[in-house]
Specification:
Layout lengths: L10 H6 L4 E6 L5 E5 L9 H7 L10 E5 L10
Antiparallel strand pairs: 1-2, 1-3
């Protein structure tokens, strides 16, 4: 699950900081994948993106999602 402060980040926020995808990992089988965010509405929150995810290998819907920041997480540089 995303960190509480991260769940309020929107697709528009992620795009503004250069992210074009999220990384996701399954809590059950540990499968890891990247998913593009270009087709999502700008107001979509990271929490909603996470809620939409499902593991393609085991079908689990408990997936951890984080933005893929191209230059490291914003504000930490």
């Amino acid at each position: 699950m995303a960190e509480p402060f991260e769940t309020l980040i929107t697709v528009a926020d992620m795009r503004a900081h250069g992210a074009d995808a999220v990384s996701a990992s399954c809590w059950r089988c540990n499968r890891f994948w990247r998913s593009p965010i270009f087709a999502l509405p700008p107001e979509t929150t990271l929490a909603k993106v996470q809620a939409l995810m499902k593991c393609h290998d085991c079908g689990n819907d408990r997936v951890h999602v984080t933005p893929v920041w191209p230059n490291g997480e914003p504000g930490l540089q």
